Structures are given as structure tokens and as C-alpha cells.
Structure prediction request, 283 residues.
Amino acid sequence: MTLARLTLPAPAKLNLMLHILGRRADGYHELQTVFQFLDYGDELDFQLRTDGEVHLHADIPGVPPETNLIVKAARKLQSDSGATLGIDIWLRKVLPMGGGIGGGSSDAATTLLALNHLWQLGYSLDQLAELGLALGADVPVFVRGHAAFAEGVGEKLTPVEPEEPWYLVLVPQVSVSTAEIFSDPLLTRDSPPIKVRPVLKGNSRNDCQPVVERRYPAVRNALNLLSKFTDARLTGTGSCVFGAFPNKAEADRVSHLLAETLTGFVAKGSNVSMLHRKLQNLF
Prediction:
């Protein structure tokens, strides 16, 4: 008998804006942000095991399998559900670590959705999103799979429909520490809260960008270069910067112009993640 196997994408995300409203008593920050997905990401293969063991087949420097969010997601779902089946997982990694485009969180969400199906658990998206939140603040939006205005620490999600342009994402060769940025004394922590609608018409700044630019000259350089062609912004608290273009040809043109000094990729913005589109086609 051939055990069930499933291949699913783990898409990147962009933060189209990020405002920090204040620091909470638990040390986390209240924020407002808009998440949108990209049709670009990692890919994971899953194959059932009958012995209950969880094995990740991926060699990621500096990240032992036991600390990888993929393994943590699988074990958390296994523990919560009492599932007796196991899983082999193969990861094809293309999203940079510390880039601010959600690689680890997206991998974890794809794992939760895949195992919910393969282990036939019948969990709802609400249940999976709640499990995911314990793994990371960005995991719930990937579980739900729709562009969203997010509040709280990023877990209170309101679906939104921003435009879906083509993006050029530049990837400076540095890994930005989220903890370092959020602990910086110069970080803006008093942005006034805004309503959803104005977010989509403007207010697109990222409060973390000045801190990241000051600490990481490579990121500042990427922003300066891309801003010659379009409005260039930082995504999340990572190193990646992005700009929107009306079509793929224009994004490709600028990508080629900058290719000598910076690596990057061109991808379509999408309000429904390619993971959820694939799941809809499969089931």
C-alpha cells in the first residue's frame, strides 16, 4: 500500500504597512498591519508514516530540525489532536530567513493545513489558526489564506481587498533580528490607530523601517536604489524591501537593472494565497 502524499506551497507575504501603537505589559507590541500574499514561496512534500514519528528532511544551516517551526507545528497538532500517525516532510526552501516575508510562519501554516487533511482531523480554520498563534503571530494569516488588516500582535484579522500589482522584492544579504528591532529605544511606539479603509488609500509607512535602515546599511542601500523607480518600502521587521509595478514586464525591467548589485525576485500580489487556491483545487 502506498501511503498518502501531498505537495503544497508555502507563500511569501508582504506587510503593505506596519504601525506600532504601543508596548503591552507582556512585552509584545500592539500593531496594525496589512498582509498580502505573493505567488512565490517554499514548497513542502508530506508523506504519511504509521509509526507516529515526525521527520523533517531539510538541511537549513543554524536551524536544527527540533527548533524548526515545521516540526513544532506538526508536534503541536499531533499533541493537541491525539493523532497516532506520523509524517515525513521535505522542504524546498527559497524564502530567505530574517527577510520579513514570512518564510517560517508560512511553512508552519502549510504544515498545519496539510496534516489536518492527511491525518483526517477535521479541524476548522479557526482551530488551526489558534494553534498557529502559539507558534508565531504571523501564522494565523497564512492559515486563513486571505489578505487581511491585522491588529493586536497580528492575530486579529479583518479580510481586505487591496490592489494586486506585480512586486519586485529585493533581498539584501543580511538577516534582521525581530527582537532587536522591537527592543530598539528609537522605535516609534505611539502611532495613532487607524481604520481599515484609510490603510488601503495610503498610510503605507512601516514604523520599523527607520530603525532597520539605521542598523543595516545594506537595507538602506536597497531602499535607496529601488526608490528611484517606485515607492520602496520595508516588509515586516525583516531585510526584504519591495515596490509595486503595474505589470510584470516593468517589474522585470527594474529587476534586471538592479541585478548587478542586488538579488531579488518578481512576484504577483494575491489576496487569496496560492496555498488555499491549491487546496480548493485538490479537495
User: Anything to note?
Assistant: Residues 129 and 140 are 4 Å apart (CA to CA).
